Amino acid sequence: MIIKLTKKALSILLIFGLFMAIPTDTLAATKVMWGKTELKLGQIGKVTILADTPLVKVESNGTLSTVRILKKGDEYRVYSYKGQHNGLYGVGGGSFVQKNTTKVKYETPSKKKLALVTPKPIITTPVDPPALEVVDIQ
After folding, report:
1. How many beta carbons lie within 10 A of that of residue 32, not counting itself?
2. DSSP conformation class of 74
3. In the predicted model, what is the mean pLDDT of residues 52-67?
4. Concatenated DSSP letters for 22-68?
5. The pTM is what?
6. CA distance 77 to 48
């Protein structure tokens, strides 16, 4: 009876110890919301669709082809910008939204919000190696 209880207690302590040993990063788990979307690392801005507008892809010959129509009120993350075709906001996956102030509103995140998703540098302090002691054997 005592052996069974000891084994169970040891198992519980071992499992608890494993959970305590797994590092958790609370900053990585925290979502930073910006309007309707989550602010992600690498994001340079967002577009809010003011009127139904096409989502386009740039073809190999440089022309634009419509992928689908984005609906009024939707928000999309912007990861890049191209100056061709009067401006294209890259929303990922090779898709773009054309710059058009009457149909699309572009915004950039505040520095405060951006700082919440930017990884903090890990600062380590160099440690000097232990001093060597010279022993003379004679």
Report:
1. 16
2. -
3. 96
4. S---HHHH---EETTEE--TT--EEEEESS-EEEEEE-TTS-EEEEE
5. 0.66
6. 9
